[in-house]
Amino acid sequence: MAASPDYKVYQAKEYRAACKYTEDAAALVAFLGEGTEIRWGHNVIVWTEGSESQPAGESYDHVTEVVAGRVAAHLRRLDVKRTEEAEAARVKMAEIRRARA
Questions:
Q1: Where are the domains of the chain?
Q2: What is the pLDDT of residue 9?
Q3: Which of 21, 60, 92, 101: CA 20 to 30 A from 3?
């Protein structure tokens, strides 16, 4: 069984579609209009029609570039957070070992 597509389209908080390709999500957003969102997964909003520098209907390529940049930034933030959490766990374990010694 294939995994669910990454891009979800929401209109007025209603889940409308899942798209494998950003361009497809952009076309649907352009059709549905202002306030429609593209989310990466169900939680990370990567495009909100009407709040961007241009409408999705003007350039699906532009939507793809913006969305790709926002997904990459989100993944970088997650990576930094995981690294910080791992370092905090290492420090805590070192403190526990010192306390036992």
A1: 7-100
A2: 98
A3: 60
Residue 22 burial by Cβ neighbours in a 10 Å radius (0-12, 13-18, 19+):
buried
pLDDT of residue 84: 87
DSSP output for 80-96: HHHHHHHHHHHHHHHHH
Share of the chain above pLDDT 70, in %: 99
Q: Which residue has the higher pLDDT, 86 or 56?
A: 56
DSSP string of 39-101?
A: EETTTEEEEETTSSSS-GGG-HHHHHHHHHHHHHHHHHHHHHHHHHHHHHHHHHHHHHHHHH-
What are residue 18's DSSP bridge partners? Answer: 8
Amino acid, single-letter form, for residue 39: R
